[in-house]
Design goal:
Length: about 375
């Protein structure tokens, strides 16, 4: 076929379009990484990085938002809004700085613009979590032992609490002198909300109405963990049939079968997060599953490592694979990047973030050699696509 100038024009246009698509695709494969911190020493707030999964390169950018103790962050499902709690740590000044802030995310620069902030309705919020529909945010208040539901408005701002529950009771250990709500999770269908009650050894269960933003105690209203375990965080398996509870005061993970119709759970396994024969102090801080639901990762403060487990595809039970040092002190948080190829460990007491490569077939972790120093008291890591 003879190629004429007239044929070259549409071909050139097509070639240019392919180049544009290629560049757009490359940009969409990069992420902004936001790190929440404590600001008790030299920290100033939320820090921003840029991450390129194709190369594994993590580039520090700037301070994204100056605020006191943004110790935990949550991202809206639409990736346009970031939420940060302010955790006031004193026991003697009720109501001070116990708030949740809403930020708009610039998709090109990653800049954060404060939209508003509202009260968490309690003292010392430990975790915030957004429901799968993006209509509500749940705040677990550790120091006052309560939970609040904050509605998310269409423009990303937060409304004043429409749901609230004050917990009661205590546990057998010194740190369980009163209720201490710590972590939360919504069921995949947004019908139920769960709260890890660290002080009373309970997993609280609520019926959740996204339209009204209300929390109503389920029947039964809680699952009772073994005394002294101290539930800290909760997460669902991608299949929606298993709920995992990370226990802080007894280093273990409780595997719970989940009845989606009734919102109830039943225990099927307790898996230690430390190796057999380990006798030193360990306080698990965070855990996360990979997207395929094949592996579970949990951080241990004390031995300062990540415990890696294989997940039984039929039962959801856990089998230990390895324990990997985080190359820092007190891994308060870690997070798998959206591709699942990397794990970012935030070592609070050594002010660094260490990046590990994740083997998709075995779940094992290998240090990449990337260690970002001088990140003041990092306590939370989240990812947002860059455009």
């Amino acid at each position: 076929m003879r190629v004429t100038p007239q044929r070259l024009v549409p071909f050139a246009a097509l070639l240019m379009l392919l180049v544009v698509w290629s560049l757009a695709g490359a940009g969409s494969n990069e992420y902004f990484v936001y790190v929440g911190t404590y600001t008790r020493t030299h920290g100033k707030g939320i820090y921003k990085f840029r991450f390129q999964p194709s190369t594994g390169k993590l580039t520090p950018l700037s301070l994204a938002a100056e605020m006191p103790n943004p110790s935990y962050l949550a991202v809206h499902p639409n990736q346009r809004f970031l939420y940060a709690e302010t955790e006031h740590e004193g026991e003697d000044t009720p109501g001070k700085n116990n708030t949740v802030s809403a930020f708009a995310i610039d998709p090109k620069t990653g800049a954060l613009t404060l939209l508003n902030k509202v009260s968490s309705r309690g003292e010392g919020p430990a975790q915030i979590v957004v429901d799968p529909a993006g209509k509500g945010l749940m705040a677990a208040n550790y120091r006052s032992g309560s939970v609040a539901l904050l509605p998310i408005l269409p423009d990303g701002r937060l409304g004043e609490a429409t749901g609230f529950d004050q917990h009661h009771g205590a546990g057998p250990k010194p740190k369980q002198d009163r209720p201490r709500a710590h972590g939360g999770a919504f069921s995949p269908d947004s019908r139920f909300a769960f709260v890890a009650e660290n002080g009373t050894d309970q997993v609280m269960i609520y019926r959740y109405n996204p339209s009204t933003g209300t929390l109503t105690p389920n029947d039964p209203p809680f699952f009772k963990s073994r005394p002294g375990t101290g539930p800290r965080h909760l997460t669902f398996h991608p299949n929606g049939r298993i709920l995992y509870s990370l226990n802080e005061l007894e280093p273990s993970i409780t595997v719970l079968s989940y009845d989606a119709a009734r919102g109830t759970v039943q225990p099927i396994q307790d898996a230690p997060t430390v190796p057999p024969g380990f006798t030193e102090t360990s306080a698990p801080a965070q855990f996360q599953l990979d997207r395929a639901g094949k592996f579970l990762y949990a951080s241990n403060r004390g031995p300062d490592n990540i415990a890696v487990f294989a997940i039984d595809p039929a039962k959801g039970t856990l089998t230990p694979i390895e324990h990997v040092p985080t190359q820092g002190k007190t891994p308060r948080d870690f997070s798998l990047d959206p591709t699942g190829g990397y794990l970012f460990a935030a070592n609070q007491n050594s002010d660094n973030i260490v990046v590990f490569r994740v083997d998709a077939k075995t779940g094992r972790l290998t240090p990449t050699g990337q260690k970002v120093e001088n990140v003041p008291e990092p306590s939370c890591v989240v990812f947002v696509p860059a455009h």
